[in-house]
Amino acid sequence: MAAVPTTTDPAGTPVPQRLLAAATRLFAEQGYDRTSVQEIVEAAGVTKGALYHYFGSKDDLLHEVYARVLRVQQERLDAFANADEPVEQRLRGAAADVVVTTIDNLDDAMIFFRSMHHLSPEKNKQVRAERRRYHERFRALIEEGQEQGVFSRATPADLVVDYHFGSVHHLSTWYRPGGPLTPQEVADHLADLLLRALRP
């Protein structure tokens, strides 16, 4: 059996990235359930064999659309959490960063929250575990500040996390590029709201 080439277009874009880009655009435009594998491979300019070589199924593509963003966000959160700075600065940086990275990947976020129920039970469980790890690291920053007396203990850390991420997950329903606020301005406002809510 011949090996599947890693690049086949003039720009040298790897096949997995081309498939993800095509799937993301089509899922965003017409929905996951209304997008066929044939449409994805035609948009990516590859064969079905190439898709199944890299992803195995349309379900795998949906999972990767979200997982690639979450991987970046987890790496960035870990960097903020491990920085040698006061906990208030680390939390504010992490809180703003997740807003910016979500806005930078709005299609991915919209697709995922609209289509997560299409994932297989195994993939759904995996994604929930990945998100839980992220939220637990974020919560640990809040708890660290509460233990130091920097943040109020009036509201449980779990509820504070839900409060912030409720805003983050809602971004794909209202934020539009070219609107009155830049991604960084939205991020700064939401991070400031979070820090104000935590003041002793």
UniProtKB/TrEMBL annotation:
It holds the Pfam family TetR_C_24. Keywords: DNA-binding, Repressor, Transcription, Transcription regulation. Residues 13-73 form the HTH tetR-type domain. The lineage of its organism: Bacteria, Bacillati, Actinomycetota, Actinomycetes, Kitasatosporales. It comes from the Bacteria. Residues 36-55 bind DNA. This is TetR/AcrR family transcriptional regulator.
